Amino acid sequence: MAGQIVDAVVIGRNEGARLATCLDSLAGRVRRLIYVDSGSSDGSPDLARARGAEVVALDMTRPFTAARARNAGLARLAEGLPPDFVQFVDGDCEVQPGWIAAALETMQDLPAAVVVCGRRRERFPGASVYNRLCDREWDTPIGQATACGGDALMRYPALAAVGGYDPTLIAGEEPDLCLRLRRAGGEVWRIAADMTLHDAAILRFGQWWRRTRRAGHAFAEGAFRHGAGPERHWVAETRRALIWGAGLPLAAILLALIHPAFLLLLLAWPLQWLRLTPRMGAEAAFFTVLGKLPEAQGALGFHLNRFLGRRRGLIEYK
User: Are strands 33-37 and 54-57 parallel, antiparallel or unpaired?
Assistant: First the structure.
């Protein structure tokens, strides 16, 4: 799209060499490159400046969220001539060479599109089963979608019209934004183009558990905020997490007080694994079933904190 201005907002903390790779992958492809740093101690701000990025240092005395960091990048862009498009990238990702051109072509062909994303791939899928699961998770269907992830090209005017990201969300900020953009008449599209390489670096079970618990929190908060709408935003995901991850084990334990045979209810888990395996493969099916436990933990944690009037901090896994 000749004459169209594209800027980029990169967020990160202590990404080191991964940040250098990320910024280098955007060099020469965008007008302004904004790096928003959230309290790095590894010299990331200086590294970013050396690569031509404008650095925004977040005030870390305030609660941090990725949404708040992205909004800080948008605010910096608003100080000058705003762009037509903004490419959001996480600092542990490398943008692929043809991505921005492919996304802009889609924007030209689809005037209603306000968000375009592509295929995010895991850089080291063989490093752990958890990295492989991430790579599978990111392989979503091509075509019109309901949401994007942290990497996407967006129309700046549409973002400004809905107020950007919700800075209070500790997770699930992209689906929340996409829902509001779609309600405003925009469309979200995923195209068959490689977009970014991502280094998930999830090598331990505990990391996977925390990441999955964060997803459960996002499901519950998204359903609480928007579930009554026609989209039924994340209502089904929250229901599945609570039924399989909390309701089933609780029912089995309580009913076992009446008769031990009720513990056989727990066989529903391996039966569900067997049901899902032909479609998903044994590995992904196993972690899908197991994942309902941390998802339920995250969902229940959200509602408990809401009941107690507490604000939940980040659920970090890296």
Answer: parallel
| Top CATH class, 6-203 | alpha beta
CATH 3.90.550.10 domain residues, the chain: 6-203
Residue type present at position 98:
G
Dump pLDDT digits (tens) for 18-59: 999 999 999 999 999 999 999 999 999 999 999 999 999 999
Alpha carbon distance 192, 209 (integer Å) = 30
Q: What is the pLDDT of residues 67-82, one digit of tens each?
A: 999 999 999 999 989 9
Q: Using CA atoms, how far apart are residues 276 and 289, in angstroms rounded to an integer? A: 9
What are the pLDDT digits (tens) for 232-279? Answer: 999 999 999 999 999 999 999 999 999 999 999 999 999 999 999 999
